[in-house]
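Progress note, sequence design subtask.
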């Protein structure tokens, strides 16, 4: 990555001069910093010299801008402001964001990196990389969001079975504060704004049809049902109006009836009508026009899009073919481990027969949805006290395990994690899928809980959010290879935490590791090697004990999220290799708690940054 450029654009130079000097020292700067709520002191940073001041000022100003542009993201992070609004996806707003991110990159180039301290050079490098990646994505029709996750969904394909307004709307409303009349009024305002969200989404999808940028038709089979599931006869039975079921203590009895009526009227007259309009559009116009092809390479600029996604999600420059070969090697290695476990069970050493036994024997499945959720909670509770043996620092943000919303469960994976926010007083949650209980085997539950909750996603993300001394974008960065690679590495820690004592549970852990190795093969196969959907499903069935339901959902996920699935195993391999290197070099002096604390101390970063940090930590440990 190049570190410094001189920009000769006079207009940008003038704006940067105003920003770098006036905003820090003048009243305008104080107002901007106060508005974003993240001054340099709040970031825990004390930059010395004008270049560092200009850089931190830009971090603050850009953070404020993106929180205002994407109020749903602000709500999820607990950042106040914009509570009654939705992201504007009009053509003008999209163009304005694209211009802003390009100019933001040019502004950053005015900062002389060579004058910064080591920590600030890393902040500079990471932010510049995010901006450059976001600008590159504009040419691939991505929205400009250089915060949290750069590769935001493609503007021309804003909905699929995994994501879109049918999930964003209820999720965002569920995260909104509900304690006061002002909070409830914000919810009403958001309900009234839903028709605009629907109409803008339809506009983008129609444009996608024209430009031949659509998801494959076959993966959208559940999408109309997801949309229609948001429409109910009684408004107060909608999850979107859950805040109006019981009067909060902060709302007076005189205000309460009016707020309930406003919410109910907004639902009947605007929300339900808008969702029905989207349903009709999907069934009558959109899905029939979607493509038959599967791979991203069939899209306009498809090969470039896949290379872009693969590079971002893995934070490496490895080609799809190289990643494919790594996947095949990992599949062979893990398969050998699985054969050993099969032998331990006393079952005849035939992999295919053993897998069929696991998929069909009723002893491995719950028959009650609540019992399944309670089972996950039991694993989580047993994991909690073991963390002190492996980590010197633990997060303050609590977490829970709850049931996944029924409307999205059929097309979702077995579980997912949603971060909490100490700022908003909200815990993190692991959402467990209770759809088709005969597809949710007990032997996978330990590995899955360790991945989604602790020591996986919740522990890593909550610690990052609570770090001091970092600008806000660092606390919320979401590099797939780091975040998902850590969570997969965390599954392996189960052995040291007293899990996987049962050979079937150990096989389940290996199944989950195999699942991520298979992803390297299948994702690259689908999007760069011409694999069919059935070919991908068959490879999954041959090499894992995952159920048919899970496998089908997973393959369809890879189809609409090209490249995202590559980050898990590529990241885990890096974490695993770094630990092995540290153990080998430090021997008896290796401290697992210090190692983990060092890995987590920087928040999510590219894999080469993790490698450099750990290597430096090893050298320091050698001389103690």
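Output:
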């Amino acid at each position: 990555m190049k570190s410094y450029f001189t920009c000769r654009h006079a207009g940008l130079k003038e704006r940067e001069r105003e920003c770098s000097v006036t905003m820090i020292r003048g009243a305008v700067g104080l107002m901007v910093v106060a508005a974003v709520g993240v001054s340099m002191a709040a970031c825990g940073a004390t930059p010395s010299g004008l270049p560092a001041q200009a850089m931190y000022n830009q971090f603050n100003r850009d953070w404020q801008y993106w929180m205002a542009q994407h109020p749903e993201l602000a709500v999820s992070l607990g950042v106040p402001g914009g509570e009654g609004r939705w992201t504007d996806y009009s053509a003008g707003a999209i163009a304005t964001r694209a211009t802003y991110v390009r100019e933001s990159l040019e502004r950053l180039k005015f900062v002389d990196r060579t004058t910064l301290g080591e920590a600030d050079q890393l902040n500079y490098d990471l932010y510049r990389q995010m901006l450059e990646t976001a600008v590159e994505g504009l040419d691939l029709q991505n929205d400009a969001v250089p915060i949290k996750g750069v590769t935001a969904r493609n503007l021309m394909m804003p909905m699929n079975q995994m994501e879109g307004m049918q999930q964003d709307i209820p999720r965002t409303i569920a995260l909104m504060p509900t304690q006061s009349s002002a909070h409830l009024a914000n919810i009403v305002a958001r309900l009234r704004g839903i028709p605009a969200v629907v109409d803008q989404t339809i506009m983008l999808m129609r444009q996608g049809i024209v430009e031949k940028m659509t998801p494959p038709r076959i993966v959208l089979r559940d999408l109309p049902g997801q949309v229609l599931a948001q429409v109910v006869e009684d408004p107060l039975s909608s999850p979107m109006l859950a805040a109006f079921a019981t009067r909060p203590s902060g709302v007076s009895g005189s205000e309460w009836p009016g707020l309930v009526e406003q919410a109910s009227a907004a639902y009947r007259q605007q929300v339900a009508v808008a969702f029905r309009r989207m349903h009709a559009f999907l069934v009558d116009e959109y899905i029939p026009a979607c493509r038959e092809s599967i791979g991203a390479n069939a899209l306009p600029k498809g090969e470039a899009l896949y290379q872009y996604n693969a590079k971002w999600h893995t934070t490496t420059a490895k080609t799809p073919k190289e990643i494919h070969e790594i996947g095949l090697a990992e599949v062979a290695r893990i398969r050998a481990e699985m054969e050993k476990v099969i032998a331990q069970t006393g079952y005849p050493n035939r992999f295919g027969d053993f897998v069929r036994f696991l998929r069909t024997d009723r002893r491995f499945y719950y028959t009650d949805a609540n019992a399944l959720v309670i089972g996950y909670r039991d694993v989580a509770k047993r994991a909690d006290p073991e963390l002190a043996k492996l980590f010197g620092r633990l997060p303050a943000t609590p977490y829970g395990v709850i049931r996944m919303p029924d409307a999205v469960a059929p097309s979702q994976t077995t579980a997912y994690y949603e971060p909490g926010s100490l700022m908003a007083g909200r815990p993190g949650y692991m959402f467990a899928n209770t759809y088709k209980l005969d597809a949710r085997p007990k032997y996978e539950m330990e590995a899955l809980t360790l991945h989604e909750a602790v020591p996986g996603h919740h522990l890593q993300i909550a610690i990052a959010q609570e770090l001091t001394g970092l600008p806000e974008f660092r606390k919320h960065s979401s590099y797939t290879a780091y975040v998902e690679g850590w969570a997969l590495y965390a599954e392996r820690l189960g052995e040291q935490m007293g899990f996987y004592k049962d050979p079937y549970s150990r096989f389940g852990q290996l199944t989950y590791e195999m699942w991520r190795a298979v992803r390297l093969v299948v994702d690259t196969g689908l999007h760069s090697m011409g694999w069919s959907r059935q070919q991908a499903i068959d490879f999954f069935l041959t090499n894992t004990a995952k159920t048919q339901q899970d496998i089908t959902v997973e393959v369809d996920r890879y189809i609409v999220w090209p490249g995202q699935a590559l980050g898990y195993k590529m990241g885990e391999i890096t974490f695993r290799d770094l630990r092995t290197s540290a153990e080998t070099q430090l021997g008896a002096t290796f401290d697992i708690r210090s190692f983990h604390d060092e890995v987590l101390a920087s928040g999510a970063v590219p894999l080469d940054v993790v490698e450099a940090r750990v290597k430096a930590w090893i050298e320091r440990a050698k001389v103690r």
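Confidence is low (pLDDT under 50) at residues 1-48. Work on this subtask will continue into the next period as scheduled.
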